[in-house]
Amino acid sequence: MTSPLPERAGRRCHNLINPLHSTHYFSPDLGRELAAVGVEDPRAAYFAVRAAAMGPVGAGVVTATFYNFRPELVARHVPAVWETASPEVVLAARARAVDATLRRLLGEETVASKEMAEAAELALRAAEACTPHARPLYAAHADLPVTDEPHLAFWHAATLLREHRGDGHLTALLGAELDPVEAMVSHTATGKGMSPKWACATRGWSREHWDAAVGRLRGRGLLDAEGGLTEAGLGLRREIEARTDLLDRAPYEHLGAAGVERLTELTGALLTRALAAGAFPEGMIGKG
After folding, report:
1. Name one Pfam family in it (predicted).
2. Rounded to the nearest 10 degrees, how much is the dihedral formed by the CA atoms of 44, 47, 49, 55?
3. What is the pLDDT of residues 250-270, one digit of tens each?
4. Would 76 be classed as within a structural domain?
């Protein structure tokens, strides 16, 4: 028997695992490795590395599973990217990039540490309880092999946990009747999402799309005149996160309270090192 999890323990753990997983998306190592196999456009590289586990899928599948990207942007790169590099080639390039990124951000001593091996063991144990139904991105990555190297095994488990929660989060967004841009606008209004500039630039939407979504959310009483969340808006975002927690509880319950606490501690230390090494660009988070 494991002791009950403290409230939001799984969410707190995820909030450290997710950015550590995501460091490679902002890494020059990823651009270098993808360019080496012919994928030079950064957007094509992103779509390819995240979708490759699903095979040579088309734009519709990527748009559906990624949720908040403009369909026209996705179609500009998918499925054409598979003519340049197959999913298998992309996955191998991604693994090389992750290896280089973690070694650079964390240092060789940390990569080879017993704490890294422990984090990998705990994260993999948690991922044992993830479920594939209605979770296409998680399920695709769960079919990939696990390497023996602890830092890459940890990253693989972090990917499983991240995509498992992410797939469930999309279910919660649909239940809240938030379209892709509305979801980003309301998340940014919490102070935790990407700035409008970053969101529009990376997801392919224009400022006009963003402003139209703001207007729709105001019409629903979710945003105030200054663009902040109203009480109703705050309540909806709380409901979305609570629903996401509920759908994502299995891996953390499986790991147990002590295991989750230790994984959170270990991942927090790793993320602190990565942030100090400049893992993310300035100006990415906030309302600017």
Report:
1. HTH_67
2. -110
3. 999 999 999 999 999 999 999
4. yes
